[in-house]
Design goal:
heterodimer, A: 238 residues, alpha/beta, Rossmann fold, 6-stranded mixed β-sheet, 4-stranded antiparallel β-sheet, 29% strand, B: 410 residues, alpha+beta, 2 domains, 6-stranded mixed β-barrel, two-stranded antiparallel sheet, 18% strand, elongated, binds adenosine-5'-triphosphate, binds magnesium ion
Chain lengths: 238, 410
């Protein structure tokens, strides 16, 4: 089971968005994907983001994950203003404080599972033997202890997504972000992955995930609905 | 990420794209091997040309009949007769008239048949003086050279080149044996040490006899006193031009010619021959190196192409690594390590191949190949530079993208 001591205590705001806007520019065409989003997420919350296709969910998630920067507005991550960070600080934030799970898994096909999982640790200057031990432990937690040497191409979609989850939690980040983590999975695989998130949540980690499915959202304590680049509703469900 | 880590990552991705990596290296490899070989061939030619000119002797001036004029090239002497004679040679040997000339050896050369027992061999028979040995910088393997007394007495004695001796006498000791030339029996008194061959003749296949013997007993006739070449040795390298002046003044005077431009002989120095030959072969080297450089360029363009494609293809990988916390410097370092490993291993393999070929090829073609360290180091440096510029530049551009933009790229 996961080590509870590694997670931070459940208090304080992890995410504070104030009037965040994002405008995409392709040639002369501008498109405002986020039109003034303000959102606060507390430590230890489990939040599901829902909304129709094209409403701006992924755009929002990428900003939360520091994979993209807002055009306007401010983003405080655990009180630190992200817009004031340079490339190196941002790399460190992504490395130490955030675990990101992509809909498309985004595993490196040439590396075996454990080498994929250890990648965040490599950039955190963790010694090699520690990295191996931690990635094997993370793979065991997601139930893939017998697949550590498999390459992504040698695994099912559900298994690949569990490898991606293992990679997201290997560096014990307080915040886990997942963009439609079960979008490409069948119901059993979805169940496996969601069980992992439940467990992580119980250990006090903050989880934000995007989903289209009501049964996935049901597990979260809070559902934020996005429509046309704005927050349409924000409900505590549990 | 440490350098060792980076190298490991670089090696992983080289290994996972084996075919592409091999093709990349091949382009570099062939280019470098070509540069090393062609430059080596040019340098080898240069070296063998100067070696053959140096083998003529040292501090040497060469007087030839006929004149070298700027408009008509070499003008022959009157009729087929040579304009140089044994008396010219005698005059040049005078230390009063030409104090800076230390030794003179005239040569009168004809191809004749030599017979020893049942063996027959046709070679250059050279009439010359005892100074020949010094002037031409040769030594004897066996016996002795003929003497001034032989010259005075028109003795029928001969000194043979090492190959000539072998052709006529096999493994027998030739000293004291008899060789017949034009029905005259010559006694073999010496055999020359081997000197190889130069551009124009085989230095080991000739028979030397005293000039007086050659002029009066072998050839006779009205041209008996004509010589084909007079070799002059200056007292030192510094006195070469003084010796040149003296020889020219003396010969013009003897031949009754007032202006140097209408001289019926020409004097060339070893140095001038060397200069001409070196400049010709240097041009050759530059030309060859240019062609090889082109092949390196073509190889380089191939490498650039593969590198660019691979970086573009791997923009997603770059995005993912950034998303997982890689700072731009780590990305640049990864691609730098990859490019260096590819460029360096292609370069080293190419240098190995080039050097190996430079050892083997001379056995099949009649030409030496000199391995130039500059060419080896320079071409490896170019190969690595190509890899770095065309592998690292696009990678560091991709490393500056927002992670999500790199991840989205197809
Ligand atoms: N890089 C981009 N350039 C231009 N427009 C973009 C870009 N990325 C997204 N958009 C546009 O922004 C809007 C929001 O996109 P986003 O990916 O956030 O939607 P989404 O809510 O995640 O949709 P889905 O549920 O289909 O994943 C869309 O209309 C999309 O076309
Ligand atoms: Mg989306």
């Amino acid at each position: 089971m996961l080590d509870i001591a590694e997670a931070e205590p459940a208090s304080g705001e992890v995410i504070t968005l104030t009037d965040v806007r994002k405008t995409y520019r392709s040639g002369s065409i501008e498109f405002e994907a986020l039109r003034g989003v303000s959102l606060s997420i507390e430590q230890g919350e489990y939040v599901a983001i829902m909304g129709p296709s094209g409403s701006g969910k992924s755009t929002l998630m990428n900003i939360l994950g520091c994979l993209d920067v807002p055009t306007a507005g401010s983003y405080l991550l655990a009180g630190d203003d992200v817009s004031e960070m340079d490339e190196i600080d941002l790399a460190q934030v992504r490395n130490r404080r955030i675990g990101f799970v992509f809909q498309q898994f985004n595993l490196l096909p040439s590396l075996p599972a454990w080498r994929n999982v250890e990648l965040p640790l490599t950039y955190a200057h963790v010694p090699r033997d520690v990295r191996k031990a931690k990635s094997v432990a993370a793979l065991e937690k997601v139930g893939l202890g017998d697949r550590i040497g498999n390459r992504p191409g040698e695994m099912s979609g559900g298994q690949q997504q569990r490898v991606a989850v293992a990679r997201a939690l290997v560096s014990s980040p307080a915040l886990i972000l997942a963009d439609e983590p079960t979008g490409n999975l069948d119901s059993t695989a979805t169940e496996d992955v969601l069980a992992l998130f439940d467990e992580l949540h119980q250990q006090g980690r903050t989880i934000v995930l995007i989903t289209h499915e009501a049964e996935v959202a049901d597990r979260a304590g809070r559902v934020v609905r996005v429509r046309d680049g704005q927050i349409h509703s924000d409900r505590i469900t549990a | 990420m440490s350098w060792l880590e980076t190298l490991r990552t670089g090696w992983d991705s080289i290994w996972s794209h084996r075919m592409r990596s091999i093709l990349t290296m091949l382009g570099i490899l062939i280019g470098i091997a070509a540069v090393i070989l062609t430059v080596g061939l040019g340098l080898g030619t240069q070296k063998s040309v100067s070696a053959s000119i140096n083998s003529l002797g040292s501090n040497l001036l060469i007087v030839s009949p006929g004149s070298a004029t700027s408009t008509t090239g070499v003008r022959g002497g009157f009729g087929s007769a040579s304009t140089l004679t044994t008396s010219d040679a005698e005059a040049l040997a005078s230390s009063l008239a030409a104090p800076d000339i230390s030794a003179v050896a005239a040569e009168k050369t004809t191809s004749l048949a030599l017979t020893a027992g049942s063996a027959n061999w046709t070679t250059s028979v050279v009439g010359t003086s005892p100074e020949w040995l010094t002037v031409r910088n040769r030594t004897l393997a066996q016996g002795a050279f003929f003497t001034a007394a032989d010259e005075t007495n028109r003795s029928a004695v001969a000194v043979l080149g090492s190959e000539t001796a072998t052709e006529l006498f096999g493994f027998q000791n030739p000293i004291g044996q008899t060789v017949t030339i034009n029905n005259i029996s010559f006694q073999v008194v010496g055999v020359l040490a081997s000197a190889g061959s130069n551009a124009s003749s085989n230095l080991d296949d000739q028979a030397l006899v005293p000039m007086s013997t050659a002029a009066n007993r072998l050839f006779g006739g009205t041209t008996r006193n004509a010589v084909s070449t007079i070799y002059l040795q200056a007292r030192s390298a510094d006195l070469l031009s003084a010796a040149y002046q003296e020889a020219q003044a003396l010969l013009l005077n003897l031949h009754g010619i007032t202006t140097a431009s209408s001289a019926d002989f020409s004097i060339s120095s070893q140095e001038s021959l060397l200069d001409t030959a070196t400049s010709v072969s240097r041009t050759l080297t530059v030309l060859l190196a240019g062609i090889a450089g082109l092949s390196l360029l073509v190889g380089g363009i191939g490498v650039m192409n593969i590198m660019l494609v691979s970086v573009t293809e791997r923009t997603r990988e770059i995005g993912l690594r950034k998303a997982l916390g890689a700072p731009p410097a780590a990305i640049r370092r990864q691609f730098l390590a990859e490019a260096t490993v590819l460029g360096l291993s292609g370069g080293l393999l190419g240098a190995g191949l080039g050097i190996a070929a430079a050892r083997v090829v001379p056995h099949f073609i009649n030409s030496e190949i000199v391995i130039s360290q500059t060419a080896v180091a320079g071409s490896i440096a170019i190969a690595v530079a190509i890899g770095i510029v065309f592998g690292v530049y696009p990678a560091s551009r991709a490393a500056r993208l927002a992670p999500i933009d790199a991840l989205r790229s197809e």
